[in-house]
Design brief:
By secondary structure, this protein is mainly α. Helices cover 93% and strands 0% of the residues.
Length: 149
């Protein structure tokens, strides 16, 4: 009869924590990708707006229009800088989440190793018991044969 691994609840708990960390890591990666996408969109808007400014300048416009274009470009550049900072924050959060997930995975593997060792020890104990029972059966059989002779 194989004994239950007494640390099994901890194995299950660490596996659940590892899965939760993996899910959190996936969400962090998604947020990072969204932030990068938004940054790319803002940079695209800036390029598009600069091209419009250039074509409009060739056609001519008033000082007020010029200032409005310049003010909007400054705001876009500020938004891009802020978004770049957000991308960096997302990357750092992802790296922290990855470290957490890796730590949880190491913990799971440690408990799994302990469980494997436990299972091996139990198998050896079972094998020894089986061997002892077979030896005893063989001795009894041999004794009965000798008694009947």
């Amino acid at each position: 009869m194989v004994k239950r691994f007494h640390l099994q609840p901890l194995v299950e708990l660490t596996e659940e924590r590892s899965q939760a960390a993996a899910q959190a890591l996936a969400k962090l990666k998604h947020a990072w990708l969204l932030a990068e996408t938004k940054q790319g969109q803002l940079q695209g808007y800036l390029e598009e707006y600069r091209l419009r400014l250039q074509s409009q300048a060739e056609a001519g416009f008033s000082i007020t229009q010029w200032r409005d274009y310049q003010a909007f470009i400054v705001k876009l550049e500020f938004a891009i800088k802020a978004q770049m900072e957000e991308v960096e924050r997302c990357r750092l959060r992802w790296e922290t989440g990855q470290a957490e997930w890796l730590a949880r995975e190491r913990e799971v593997k440690a408990y799994q190793t302990l469980r494997q060792r436990h299972d091996q020890a139990e198998r050896k104990t079972e094998e020894k018991l089986d061997q002892r029972l077979q030896d005893e059966f063989a001795r009894n059989l041999d004794r009965r044969r000798k008694e009947t002779e």
